[in-house]
Each structure stands twice: as structure tokens, then as C-alpha cells.
Amino acid sequence: MKQISASLSRMVGVVFALLLISSAAYAISSVDQGFQAGWFTGDGKNITNLNASQMINGILGISYGGTGASDAATARTNLDTINATTLTTGTLPDARLSSAYAKNAASGVAGIYSTGDIITPRNTGSNTKMYFWDPSYGDGWLYGEVLGASNNALYIKDGVTYHRLQSSETILAGTNTSIAKNANGTITITSSGGGSGGGNVTAVTGSGNIYSSGGVTPDISFTGQLPVANGGTGASTAAGARTNFLVYNITNVKDYGAVGNGATDDITAIQNAINSLGNSGGTVYFPKGNYSISSSIKVGDGTEAAKSTKNRIVLRGDTIGATTDAEMIDSPQGTSNIFWNGATGGTMLYINGSTYGNGISGLSFDAATKAATVLNVTHTFHSKFEDLYMQRYTGIAIDISAYDNPQGGVVMGANQNTWTHIMAVNPSGNVAGGMRVGSSIASESPYMDVAQNDFKNMQLHRSADVSAPASLTLRFTDVSTFSNVLMVGHGGSSVGKGLEIIPPAAKLDFPQSISFVNSPIIGTINITGAWNPNGHNISFFPFTTGDYDQTPPAGFMGIKDTGLMFGITT
After folding, report:
1. Are residues 507 and 536 in contact, defined by beta-carbon separation less than 8 angstroms?
2. Could you give the percent of the chain with pLDDT greater than 70?
3. What pLDDT does residue 382 have?
4. Which residues contact 136 (CB under 8 A, 6 or more apart)?
5. Widest CA span in the chain
6. pLDDT over threshold 90, residue 62
7. Which of 121, 208, 286, 499 pairs with 249 at a CA distance of 20 to 30 A?
8. Which residues of 326-335 are buried (b: 16+ CB within 10 A; e: fewer)?
9. Residue 498 domain flag
10. Which residues, 6 or more positions from 541, have their beta carbon under 8 angstroms from its beta carbon?
11. Which residues on adjacent β-strands are paired with residue 251?
């Protein structure tokens, strides 16, 4: 048995050896066939000139180091590359351009567009730039200077000038102009040049706010009105703005062109300022100055046939008062002076009622020996006149009256007005009087007269001639009070009329119920006409006798400052 096993083992070995010899012979035959077919050349040890197109069947994939494609265009797509040397049109969603394909100043390639990022390589050269250029706009380029250059930045080129766009807080740095953003977000425009006046900043039509720290005057053109909610007034006029802000209207005459130099005729500017208030009324302010007028100032537009559409208008001067002795003499009530430069015999100021809530304060009036009347006040009520100074009038300084038969639903006369701190002095000519209260014609019931007026701290002067009106003349008026009112009848105690009573026609019991409190008369008391107050006397408390000791005529009652009573029956 051992001999049989050994014989079998030897047989198997022989068979294996024969198989190896057969395989080697096949391989040698294949190599020989390869040389014969031209697949490769060599001496059998070193293989050269391997023809891959004949050796490989199919396409070598990207994972094996191939392109995965059988043509160049597909290969570029598979490898996510692009042939920049041939690209002249199209869109680069995410282009990465090397400096070899960037446009240079001499002969770059135009027409490369991108909606994404264009990334240029880091370059320390001095001539490599990236340009964005539209040939239709000529020489207008935006380019980035290379890193490492002396002026590393982004530039805008117009013509031959380069303007740097900084990446720091300076937004634009040009030859003469720079725009910078501060840490708090404020943008500052700095300009040099612009001629002797310095730099100019010009804003075209738009909205918003432009501020200047000095030396820069914006040239701004706006349309529309900025609403109150956006920091504006919401109006195109000062009056409209005041209405929107619910404030009382105040208008400055100088805003309407008044000069106040004593030579320029300011009447148009003053009247325009008054008219600008509209029917709602307001205050017209006269800053310190000398305002010349050639015609009358008019407040209110009423007549006897129709009441005024304008009410609550106040004329107010500078009430700081005199600051020098000369100012104290010329204008003791203030430093806003109105001078008459109109026709002889004119009136400086009219209040045309029926109207209410008006006023005049802090003004000085100079009739300049030409104007007859300073104030002509017709049918106003609930009004206030204070701190007024008037001089050199040739007629009546103050004339107060009411309409006989006013229309339009008027139910009251010239009532409930106050007159305080008023001086009518230095009359001119021979026929000037101080103040006249009441009309010469009496109305029927409900008796539209001047009533319930309160006069305080006044001086009233007349001319010296015997024909001149009195310092104070009372006509169709009642139920009014005069407190500390000095009536000066120039021309001596025997001829100067301090107070004169002239009853209106067909109403001979007026004036009546008038009270004088500590109001001296330097002159005489005169009665013109058949006055009979029917027990509604004029009273004095006291009747002063220091300047001229006289006993008032019938119709007066009171107590002299000596303690003696007159006109009182028990």
C-alpha cells in the first residue's frame, strides 16, 4: 500500500508541472503577438509606446484618474472647469479667473459678466488690476488695485482721474472731496476748493434733512410738504403750520418784508402780515425799529352793513422798553415806532368792526404833524389796548365809536374794552384833541353805544387854541370808568378844555353813569348842547382841586379832595 501511495504522489506532481509549462508557453505566445500587432514595443523586458486607446476598452472614470468623458467639453463639465480663453459671452454664476484672463489697461477682454463673486488671485505686482467696464459709457471703469501696491483700494475712474473707494470709514476719497462715516453713523462730506467761499455741497430734488456745520450752503429743491409725523409742519405756509401745531398765530412784520429803518415804506409788509393771519386771528409782532407808513393800517373788514370776518387780531410791539434817555423821551412805552409818511389829515390805524378780541400793545405812533388821527376804533368789543404812546397828531389822537344800526346779528355796542398805560401828548396845530368816546348820533334800542369800557393810567393832551377839542370828549357813552386819567387842557385854566360833554342828537341824557376815580382835570369842564342826564350823573371820587379849583356844573356829583360834596342831594 505504501508503494501505491508514493506512485500516486509522483503522478500528481508530473501533471502540475505540465500545466505550468503550458501556461508559460501561452504567455510567451501572447507577448509575441503583442509585438507583432504593434501594441507595444521593447526588448521583452522594458515596454514602451503603450497605446491606451487600443489597450483600454470604454471610458476611464474620474475616480480612476480619468475624465469620465469622451470629449473635451464634457470633460470640462465633469471637472467643473471652463476654458476662459474662448469665453466672450455668457454668464458666470461663480467664476474664478486667474490673472492671465483679467482685463488690463492696454488690451483686456471685454464682456465678462457675473451675478456672483469674481475672485482674483492675490498679486503683489504693480500693474495687475480687475476692471468692470461698459464700453457704452466710454471711459468709466471700476477696478480693484492689486494687494501690495502703494494705493491699495477700490477705484472709480472718470476720464483720467481715479477716485478711491476706501474699505475703512472713509467712503470716498477724491482729489478735493471725501465722504466719511463716523462711528455713530453720521456721514460727513468734506470739500476743499470751490473758490474763495470754500467747498460747496449741492443737494438735488429729494427729501430728508441736510445739515451743515458751517460754510456749506445746500442748494435744495423739495416738492410737497413734510408731514408732522415725519418731523415737518405738514403745511406750505407759516399760518398753516401754526394751525397744524395748534398754536396761537404769531407773525413777524419783518418776515413779510418790513425794514423798520424809518425811511423804507413798510405799509405793504405790515398789512400783508396782518392779512396772513386769516379769520382765526393772531398776533402781528413789530420788533424794535422805526416803521414808516404811507397809508392806513387796517384791522378787520367790517362795516355797518356786515360784521367783520376777521377777529382776535393783536398788534404787539417790542415791550422791552426804552434803554436810553433819548428813547425814554421819544417813546417811553417801547421801542417799536410807527411813523406817518402819508397824506395830511390821514388816519394811522383803523379797527373796522363789528369785531371782537382785538388789541394793540407796546407801540409808539408819531403822526409827524400830518396825520389827524392815530387810532380810529369802530365797534370793537372784548378788546385790549395797552402801553401805547402817540404824539404830533393834528386832530383826535383816539376816536372810539359804535355803529348806529349794525347788521349781521350784532347785539352789543363797543363794549367791555380796556385801555391801560396810554399817553396822547404833544399835539400839533390848533385843533388837536386827546380822546373822543362815543358817536355823535345815538342809536335806538338796544342802544349800540360805547359802554363798559375801562380807562386806566392815561394822559390826554389837547392843543392850546380855544377852538381845539377837549383833552377828553364824551358823547354817546355810558357805564364806563376812568381811573388815574390826567386830562390836560393847554392854553391856561380859563380857556383850556380838559373835559367836554356833547350829548348826541335826540339822546340828550347821554353821556351818563360815568365814573372818574383820582382823575385830575387841568382845565375847564364844558357842556355843549342841552345835556340832561336825568339823575344818571357823572361822578368824581375825588374831584381834585390842586391844579384848578372849580365846582363842576349840574349833572356832576362827587366829593372834592377837600372833603366838600357837590351834586349830591339828601
Report:
1. no
2. 59
3. 97
4. none
5. 192
6. no
7. 208
8. ebeebbebbb
9. yes
10. 515, 516, 517, 518, 558, 559
11. 284
Is the pLDDT at 141 greater than 50? The verdict is no
| Domain with 293 in it | 248-514
Long-range contacts of 553-562 (CB under 8 A, 24+ apart): 553/525, 553/527, 555/501, 555/527, 555/531, 556/525, 558/516
Contacts of 80 (CB under 8 A, 6+ apart): none
Q: Which of 474, 494, 514 is the last residue of a domain?
A: 514
From 514, 534, 563, give the residue that closes a domain. Answer: 514
Cell numbers representing residue 262 in the block: 424809518
**CATH of residue 500:** 2.160.20
- Does the pTM surpass 0.85? The reply is no
Give the model's pLDDT for residue 139. 47
Cα dihedral sign for 57, 63, 69, 72? negative
Q: Which residues make beta-bridge pairs with 555?
A: none
- Residues 6-24 as b/e (b if ≥16 CB within 10 A, e otherwise) read eeeeeeeeeeeeeeeeeee
Residue 45: CB partners within 8 Å, gap ≥ 6? none
Contact 512, 536 (CB under 8 A): yes
Find cell 418790513 and name the residue.
258
Q: Count the domains in the chain.
A: 2
pLDDT, position 443: 77
pLDDT of residue 96: 41
Amino acid at 342: G
Cα distance between residue 142 and residue 314, in whole Å = 64
Task: Please enumerate in sequence order all residues whose Cβ is within 8 A of that of 315, keeping only pairs 6 or more positions apart, or say none.
Answer: 274, 283, 284, 286, 297, 299, 349, 359, 360, 361, 363
| Inside any domain, residue 243 | no
Does any domain span residue 463? yes
What mean pLDDT do residues 521-546 have?
90
Written as nine digits, the cell of 367 is 403822526
Rg of the chain, C-alpha, whole Å = 54
- Across the strands, what pairs with 400? 377, 437
Cα distances (Å, whole numbers) of residue 558 to 539, 546, 566, 570: 5, 16, 6, 13
